[in-house]
Write a structure and sequence with these properties.
Elements (H helix, E strand, L loop, with lengths): L3 E6 L5 H9 L17 E7 L2 E7 L10 H15 L2 E7 L6 H13 L3 E6 L6 H5 L10 E3 L8 H8 L3 H12 L3 E7 L5 H9 L17 E7 L2 E7 L12 H16 L2 E7 L6 H13 L2 E7 L6 H14 L8 E3 L11 H12 L5 H14 L4 E2 L2 E2 L1 E9 L4 E7 L6 H15 L7 E6 L13 H13 L4 H9 L1
Parallel strand pairs: 1-3, 1-4, 4-5, 5-6, 7-9, 7-10, 10-11, 11-12, 16-17
Antiparallel strand pairs: 2-3, 8-9, 13-14, 15-16
Helix pairs in contact: 12-13
Length: 473
């Protein structure tokens, strides 16, 4: 589905300029006087392969009459059609009574609008936006539309990523929380699936390799929708001989990608083996939430149980955020409690956090422990926003982010996980440097500068900057 973005605001705040930048066109007339745009205008744009439609609207004042009233109706019609509403304000003019009236009108419409502070060039953006925070919008973007500054960062937050679009497609096919059950052959995956379903839905037999294909089973439990995915057991590569088994492994890896939460089943009698760790690696690389189920717990001696628990705790120390359950799929002990962990994992993986909250957590983390200095300059991290879900992606903007040490990245991950109370799901961080407004631009000389340069070259003179450097030496 193509998102529709409506631009609304007072006259002469830069809506048409932003429209042209987003559509990479000059379809909207732009001039330095208010009221130029009267009818709503549609245009098409794209960012990172995601198409979208932009609607440019006439200026609103909040107390329209006559022709202005009809323009206001056109603007509010665009708001009704839009999936995303961008409320533009003028960072140079500051907050006005008209802005407050438009903000009230947008709130009454029931649409969730985003505040965009335009014309922040030539001044401190934070100071330019300070007046508008009183309007109470969750998301605020600081841009300079005439210089195409800050627009890419805004679109990155507004538009769904490719992973989110794929997630929407999977949600249409398989409703509710998708739970993938993976593990080595004959550890009790199918038995666990039948126990969670409450019926003998899949074949269970005491022989490795009984399940060959991934089976998607939608069902309902206590009013909630789920889809269980039973998978084939994954053995070590040297033990895989049949072509069918090779395809089964591919299906298992695809099932991990399809799932919201993955339950890794471990055989308590055999303990934690290297192949279990390889499967955990696949799950973490896919960014999926993880629940550990140590099966066949019934009938074990207390000493053996203590040994297995110690082994799991020691070798899975890096998964301290994942819940671990000791169960018996055959008898059902401990299986029902796993649903609580699955629900917590799903909520963490699909959570949505506003930009101002993530930025506040980032600033608090920096206040507690500042980033190191590189080449005599302090690494600056300015703000953070969410870049995706399942797994949660947090995008941090700043300068010199390529030099940020791994230890500081882990510190940020642990801080965000603790404050946001993320359970069972990994958190991915992306660090991006600020946009360079002069990137890709050629430094062209004026005719006068070109003549002076030619004369200097003929007389053998060095450029002024080179002469200054030689004098300093």
């Amino acid at each position: 589905m193509t998102p529709v973005i409506a631009l609304v605001g007072r006259p002469n705040v830069g809506k048409s300029t932003l429209f042209n930048q987003m559509t990479r066109s000059r379809d909207a007339l732009v001039a330095d006087f208010p009221g130029l745009t009267r009818d709503r205008k549609y245009g098409e744009g794209s960012y990172e392969g995601q198409r979208f439609i932009v609607i440019d609207t006439g200026g609103l004042t909040g107390d329209e009459q006559g022709l202005d009233l009809e323009m206001a109706r056109q603007s509010m019609q665009a708001v009704e059609e839009a999936d995303i509403v961008l409320f533009l304000v003028d960072g140079r003019a500051g907050l006005t009574a008209g802005d407050e009236l438009i903000a009230d009108s947008l709130r009454r419409s029931g649409k969730q609008a985003r505040l965009v502070v335009n014309k922040t060039d030539g001044q401190d953006p934070d100071i330019a936006a300070s007046d508008f925070y009183s309007l109470g919008f969750e998301s605020t973007f600081l841009i300079a539309a005439s210089h195409n500054r800050g627009i890419r960062s805004m679109l990155e937050i507004l538009l769904p990523s490719e992973e989110e679009r794929e997630e929407e497609d999977r949600a249409d096919r398989y409703p509710g929380i998708r739970i993938g059950v993976v593990g080595r052959p004959n550890v009790g995956k199918s038995t666990l699936v039948n126990r969670m379903l409450g019926e003998e839905r899949v074949v269970v037999y005491d022989m490795p390799g009984t399940t060959r294909d991934s089976v998607h089973i939608p069902y309902e439990r206590q009013g909630s929708q789920y889809t269980l995915i039973d998978t084939a057991g994954v053995r070590r590569r040297k033990n895989v001989s049949e072509v069918v088994e090779k395809f089964s492994i591919i299906k298992t890896l695809q099932a991990i990608d399809d799932a919201h939460v993955v339950i890794l089943v471990i055989d308590a009698r055999e303990g934690l083996v290297d192949q279990d760790l390889h499967l955990i690696g696949f799950v973490l690389d896919a960014g999926r939430s993880l629940v550990i189920a140590v099966n066949k717990w019934d009938g074990m001696d207390p000493e053996d149980r203590a040994r297995v628990k110690e082994q799991v705790q020691r070798r899975l120390d890096f998964l301290d955020y994942a819940d671990k359950h000791y169960i018996s799929a055959l008898h059902g002990s401990g299986v029902g409690v796993m649903y609580e962990s699955v629900q917590a994992c799903y909520e963490s993986a699909m959570a949505k956090w506003p930009t101002n909250r993530l930025t506040a957590i980032l600033q608090d983390a920096i206040a507690q422990h500042q980033p190191p200095m590189v080449h005599g300059r302090r690494i600056k991290l300015r703000y953070a926003h969410q870049g995706g879900s399942n797994p949660p992606v947090i995008v941090v903007h700043g300068n010199q982010v390529d030099s940020l040490p791994g230890a500081y990245k882990r510190y940020l991950e642990n801080t965000f996980r603790k404050v946001l109370k993320v359970t069972g799901s990994p958190i991915r961080f992306e660090f991006k440097s600020g946009e360079n407004p002069f990137a890709g631009k050629v430094d062209r000389l004026t005719p006068r500068q070109r003549v002076k340069k030619d004369n200097d070259e003929k007389k053998g003179r060095r450029p002024k900057k080179q002469r200054q450097k030689s004098l300093k030496r």
